[in-house]
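Note to self: keep these together.
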Amino acid sequence: MATVNTRRVVVTGGGIVSTLGNNWEEALKNLKAGKNFVRYMSEWDGIYPLLNTRLAAPLDNFKLDPEKYPRKKIRGMGPVAQLSLASTDRALECAGLKEGDPIFTSGRMGIAFGSSSGSIMPLMDFYAMLITHDTSKLGATTYVKCMPQTCAANLEVYYQLKGRIIVTDTACTSGSQAIGYAYEAIKFGLQDVMIAGGADEFTPVNTAVFDTLFSTSTKNQTPELSPSAYDKNRDGLVVGEASSTLILEEYEHAKARGAKIYAELVGFGSTTDGTHITSPNRDTIANAIRLAIDDAGIDSKEIGYVNTHGTATVAGDVCESGATYDVFQRSVPVSTTKSYTGHTLGACGALEAWVTINMMNEGWFHPNLNLKEVDPECAPLDYITGNGREIKTDYVMSNNFAFGGVNTSLIFKRV
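Structure:
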């Protein structure tokens, strides 16, 4: 068999739009404050009487600056694409890459980006056409705003990219799969730089998806106490809103232009369950984690922290913690960023990866909020609580799992 030459892949930038903040400094301050961003959605009262939950963690004040982003350049973007643009702009600035740099149009820079879906409101305009026969609201950008690939396609046009485009609309693994596939594109010499990330706008529809499965938290009078992943009394997830983008780059390319390197991406594993659309599978989750470790060429003992998917659903936490223990066979330190932000769906894989990278560089890892008593059904992992944990480690892992039985695991190394 022919030897395949591979290249090192590093992270040279990251950007976020989230309730945690819009940069790492803000996020770190909020993580150390130990409070979540979940609120009671009073605007739902009397409107959705059959919705069990009244909890969510939306971005209440997000809006693009019209002076920086003129309408002509963003007219095909709904809220989810606009979120992806904001986080990508921040990531590119962090990486020291500017629009107009030759790399953008060289064909050696591409994009991998995903979301759970396109924007919801343009779909309502198509609904009006079918139900009331009103076509007055349809325009040239209606479909572009709601199409599944709206984030990746709009970003590709906005930045005039000429390289590969990879669309990863795989729900809660959209961001992590984008990072993984972008990593492989660079590792195997197909691209030199990749924009990679995920986003999801918030609408009541996102919450209803999980509410119909009885997977949402109903601690409606105490939003500060939910979600509570791994806790014996957890009762479900809370939906949030965010976008996050990483800039991945071939090591020598980054080094040649003097870029700051935040971490090296050394391992990616992805599997499908092949068993059920919504119920997790312990064995295939464990296999995704093993594949990432094998790809990194390290021993699991070298990984000092795992950012878990940690949705706070009854079945999900037990299955994920069990799969993690099956691989590590020890009480590896773990925590879930969702205890702060809620479940940001398509954004969570990229957001949690960026948080994990920065925590590794800080040497401090955030706790699991609202974890008072670990469910005895969960595996015996080292669930970080209190004020967080100072850990010096050269390897960290970030895991995500999605509807459709999609499993991902990413491993980052300190550089």
